[in-house]
Design brief:
Its main location: membrane. It is a multi-pass membrane protein. It is found in: Cell membrane. Belongs to the SecD/SecF family. SecD subfamily. Belongs to the SecD/SecF family. SecF subfamily. By secondary structure, the chain is an alpha+beta fold. It has five domains: about 180 residues, Multidrug efflux transporter AcrB transmembrane domain (Multidrug efflux transporter AcrB transmembrane fold, Up-down Bundle); about 80 residues, Alpha-Beta Plaits, CATH 3.30.70; about 200 residues, Gyrase A, domain 2 (2-Layer Sandwich), CATH 3.30.1360; about 220 residues, Multidrug efflux transporter AcrB transmembrane fold, CATH 1.20.1640.10; about 80 residues, Alpha-Beta Plaits, CATH 3.30.70.2040. The chain is about 60% helix and about 15% strand. Strand 15 and strand 16 form a beta hairpin. Helix 21 runs antiparallel to helix 22. It starts with a helix and ends in a 19-residue tail after the last helix.
Length: about 850
């Protein structure tokens, strides 16, 4: 009694701490000021797909970065060659390196030495360039080490500048993180149209000063001015719309700008930008303006001439003014960009996702509705199957959900829409452990054992199966977390936490509840009963009174499965999968446009020069009914297209036809990202299969592992065939469904394998086919009950979830049915055939015998 009370107190403390950890996330806003700051910050956050906002994936333009680096090195090298009086042709610079040709091939040795001296002065550490001579041409090729160092520095510097730019805008809680080698993820809660943010982050803001070319200038470049902005300043008669001839050499770099602000010019009242130079820049600016009175000095921003005033007198104050017919917004943005600093290279938007606030609210409501209905169905199912003992399982499940939210809050994790789907799936899978325990206890009670002994043996025998099934599922989920991104990673986090907390609630918490139930009842007998029909089914098969000869149909099951898998592969060829933009690349916009017909939208798109965009009516966010005012626009993006500009053109065309249109969701995925997603998905599935193979090989034997992997492959092909046949979109959420299905399928097979292993130890001399039939029959109740509980948990999400989660819920329903049948008619027959081959070769079926049951007594 003392031990039970002690465990109850310990478990109660753990559960209380978990619930307290989750509490701040559910308190209304008016109550939070009364909480300590450290406690109020203990919350999980909602993903952008639930609260609305924008997700941008920016990639550093490595071509531009390498080009600029090589150009700078070429400028330094040519200056040194002029000083050495070596005649050369204009260097050819590309992202790969620098090519310098001589007018006199006899100067090659001198050129090589000058290049070596220049490199020695400019580089530190590992060599930045290698030299190669070919007749009268010297080629400087950038080393791989230097490339990687440039990339690392560029991304680090870009992260800092993006932080400063977004902080200047005053946005609430932007999330800025690095992804991969050259990419930056920016998440903007509450920003459903990130156009201005894209403009700010896509502007390199590299400002330099160049002298306008005159008759003495030798190295000249031509740049255009900012279009449609008339010059207000009186110093020059050159219009910004014309082409400027500038000296290539930079007179002064913009990095010397220490501060900049938008002000209104006193004479004209027009917005201008006043800038202040640092000490070095102020001295340099004073010297160069004093020596060039009467010349025009161009202010160049990202290869566009903003203004080009003539220097009337020396400017020694260390400050200046940039005018160019700016609007107040343009001048403010320019000042902010100058303050934040220039990016080392352009940031290209290679992925963009936005969710409007109304769609996010609908997703939350859908998740709550699906979760509550699923929980109610699971409760009804468990009470039907086990009576009052089903209430214990449901209470354990409820505690598990609370602990999941507690851990999410403790980690500060993000809950996404796929995460809600994962939570609902956990509800169904977590019941499996309780079903295993209840069925094991029933088996012990049928043998006439006491309640305490039945409880002990039931938990002990179920424990190994529960551990094996959870670990195999965690293998698939961990790969999804490691290789996934965004909302899909949120699914993996929720699933992983749920599987771990379910171990505690099903093994520890449930046991305490059952022990109290036995102790308080005071009865010497124990009965776990539910609906009489279910009880008769369990007593008939689980007790071994009736054994179904499943192996008699094993050959037919394998043949039918093979035929279905081949047919599924044929369906992948034609009609094929309906790839979402995650894999195909492209732009997708979902809008709500009342009083606007589909013909009006198409006409507006054609007039905007976008005839290839498909427009179709779609289901509303919260259900499957067709809504006449909800439309989906989609266009495939070509390899060389400006992805971000395509999205902007689509928005403008929609607003032209429907000014009151609400953009509920916008997605843009470039070809590079979609290719990465495809590679990641294939690799994740392969690694998941390999992980299952090695774990089952370790826990059972190689023929059990091979049978499971072959069966999983057959299950996956059929599920892919379901995608092709039903037309359900195949996207990243679908990949999450496949990996979750792998875990669930192996979970199901581990239960059967565990009973086969147990029977092999008990009766090693029994005919293997009869032993397999007896094992399947004994676990048939558990298999049916687990599949039923998982199906009823996911069913509301499949019915009410709409297109947002259809790529997950519908395949999971199909996959649960397929994997349940494959455990009986595919995995077990393969184990039988491989086991007979091992027996013919004189090999054992298992690694080593397990320890025999021990009798546990209770005072």
């Amino acid at each position: 009694m003392r031990a039970l009370t002690k465990r109850t107190l310990w478990y109660g403390c753990i559960i209380l701490l978990g619930f307290l950890s989750a509490l701040p996330s559910f308190l209304p806003g008016e109550d939070r000021p009364y909480l300590p700051d450290w406690y109020d910050s203990n919350q999980f956050s909602l993903g952008l797909d639930l609260r609305g906002g924008s997700h941008l994936l920016l990639a550093v333009d490595m071509e531009e970065l390498l080009q600029n680096e090589n150009q700078q090195m070429a400028d330094v090298l040519t200056d040194n060659l002029r000083q050495a009086d070596i005649r050369y042709l204009k260097p050819r610079v590309d992202q790969g390196g620098i090519h310098i040709s001589l007018r006199d091939a006899g100067d090659m040795d001198v050129l090589t030495q000058v290049a070596r001296d220049t490199l020695a002065e400019s580089q530190s550490g590992a060599p930045a360039y290698t030299l190669a001579r070919d007749n009268n041409t010297l080629t400087l090729s950038m080393t791989q080490v230097h490339r990687e160092a440039l990339q690392q520095d560029a991304v680090t510097q870009s992260l800092d500048i993006v932080h400063r730019r977004l902080d200047e805008t005053g946005m609430v809680e932007p999330s800025i993180t690095r992804q991969g080698q050259d990419s930056i993820v920016v998440q903007l809660p509450g920003v459903s149209d990130p156009q201005r943010v894209k403009e700010l982050l896509g502007t390199t803001a590299q400002m330099n000063f160049h002298w306008l070319a005159d008759s003495t200038s030798t190295d000249v470049i031509e740049l255009r001015g900012l279009e449609d902005r008339p010059e207000d300043g009186p110093e020059t008669d050159q219009s910004p719309s014309q082409v400027y001839r500038l000296e290539r050499k930079i007179a002064m770099e913009g990095r010397h700008v220490r501060n900049a602000n938008m002000v209104l010019q006193q004479q004209t009242g027009q917005p201008v930008v006043n800038f202040v130079l640092d000490k070095t820049g102020g001295r340099q600016f004073g010297d160069m303006t004093q020596a060039n009175i009467g010349r025009a000095l161009a202010v160049v921003l990202d290869d566009k001439v903003i203004t080009a005033p003539v220097i009337r007198s020396a400017i020694t104050t260390g400050s200046g003014e940039i005018s160019g017919g700016f609007s107040a917004v343009d001048a403010t943005d320019l000042a902010m960009l100058l303050r934040a600093g220039a990016l080392p290279a352009a940031l290209d938007v290679i992925e963009e996702r936005s969710v409007g606030p109304s769609l996010g609210s609908d997703s939350i409501n859908m998740g709550l509705l699906a979760g509550l209905v699923g929980a109610a169905l699971v409760l009804a199912f468990m009470v039907t199957a086990y009576g009052s003992w089903g209430l214990i399982a449901w209470l354990s499940l409820s505690v598990n959900v609370g602990l999941i939210f507690g851990v999410l809050s403790l980690l500060g994790a993000t809950l996404t829409l796929p995460g809600i789907a994962g939570l609902i799936l956990v509800m169904g899978m977590a019941v499996d452990a309780n079903i295993l325990i209840n069925e094991r206890i029933r088996d012990e009670l049928r043998q006439g054992k006491t309640p305490w002994l039945s409880l002990d043996n039931g938990f002990r025998k179920a424990y190994g199966t529960i551990i094996d099934s959870n670990i195999t599922t965690l293998i698939a989920i961990s790969l999804l977390f490691t290789m996934g991104s965004g909302p899909v990673r949120g699914f993996a986090v929720t699933m992983g936490i749920g599987l771990l907390t379910s171990l505690f609630t099903s093994v520890a918490f449930t046991r305490v509840l059952m022990e109290w139930r036995i102790r308080l009842s005071g009865k010497k007998t124990l009965s776990i009963t539910g609906l009489p029909l279910f009880d008769r089914l369990a007593n008939k098969f689980s007790s071994g009174k009736q054994v179904i000869n499943f192996m008699r149909a094993s050959a037919a099951g394998l043949v039918i499965s093979a035929i279905l898998s081949v047919a599924s592969i044929a369906l992948l060829v034609y009609p094929g999968l309906d790839f979402g933009i995650d894999f195909s690349g492209g732009a997708l916009v979902e809008i709500k446009a009342p009083d606007t017909s589909i013909e009006q939208l198409r006409s507006s798109l054609v007039n905007a020069g976008l005839p290839d965009i498909s427009v179709q009516e779609t289901a509303s966010a919260g259900g499957n009914a067709i809504a006449s005012d909800t439309y989906q626009l989609r266009q495939a993006i070509q390899e060389d297209a400006d992805n971000s500009q395509v999205m902007n053109n689509m928005r403008a065309a929609v607003l032209q036809a429907a000014p009151d249109a609400e953009f509920q969701r916008t997605d843009m995925v470039g070809p590079r990202v979609s290719g990465d997603f495809a590679d990641m998905s294939i690799l994740a599935v392969l690694l998941a299969g390999a992980g299952m193979l090695f774990y089952l090989w370790y826990r059972f034997e190689n023929h059990f592992a091979v049978a499971a992997v072959i069966t999983i492959a057959l299950d996956l092909t059929k599920t892919l065939g379901f995608f092709a046949l039903s037309g359900v979109e195949f996207n990243l959420t679908a990949v999450a469904a496949l990996l979750a299905l792998i875990g669930y399928s192996v979970n199901d097979k581990v239960v059967v394998f565990d009973r086969i292993r147990e029977n092999l130890h008990a009766k090693p001399d029994q005919d293997l086919a009869k032993l397999v039939d007896r094992s399947i029959s004994a676990t048939l109740t558990r298999t049916v009950f687990t599949s039923g509980s998982t199906l009823v948990a996911i069913l509301p999400m499949a019915v009410a979830g709409g297109s947002a989660v259809s790529s997950f819920a519908l395949p999971m329903l199909f996959g649960i049915i397929i994997s349940t049948n494959s455990s009986i008619f595919i995995a077990a027959p393969i184990v039988l055939r491989l086991g007979r081959r091992r027996a013919n070769r004189g090999l054992g079926q298992l690694h080593a015998p397990v320890s025999t049951d021990t009798v546990t007594t209770r005072p």
